[in-house]
Specification:
Length: 212
Amino acid sequence: MKPPTSPSLFGVLIYEGVEPIDIGGTVGVVSMARRVLPHIEAATIARQAGPVRLAGGLTVIAEHGVDTAPPCDVVIVCGGPGWPEAAADPALRDYLRKLRPTGVASVCTGALILAAAGVLDGRTATTRRRAVARETIAPLARLPLGREAAVVDDGVVTGGGVSLAIDATLYLIGRLYGGAKAAEVATIIEYDRALAANRAALGYLIQGETIL
């Protein structure tokens, strides 16, 4: 566990068609966490550095391409309707395979990109529970060892759908800096009640043990 004054870098992997809420639930949470952890940072990573068009038309600038991405404490793969194309990208899959298991995570359908890269082989994971729009199968049903949970930590951390990106990012902050600091961040972003409710309703699955 790191002291509060120790630096850390959260990489956030984005691609065409990421849902903007996943940017808020990852980069946004890390940004707010700087109020209590002044040396925590987030960096956006994509196939190539430069503009990336998200779902809904918002464009963000990826700071790094996968070939020049800096070493990160953890790289979080975002979700969104562009996940099938990202999952088929050899450069993204190769980048993810090279990361150590404890240094990679996902939120929402980012788990399906990890699965395509082989990162989740033999591991329990979670993702969005319900099919939406034109989907004919729920993303969770696509994971061989999928489990309904807010957060699953089976060596690789995966978070559930949509707003549960916040829960997963807070969990990762707690893994680095301790649960008390993660709880403090949850409080300053007015998410402490939602965090408790999500955990009570869905649970965290940590190394095979359900924790409510």
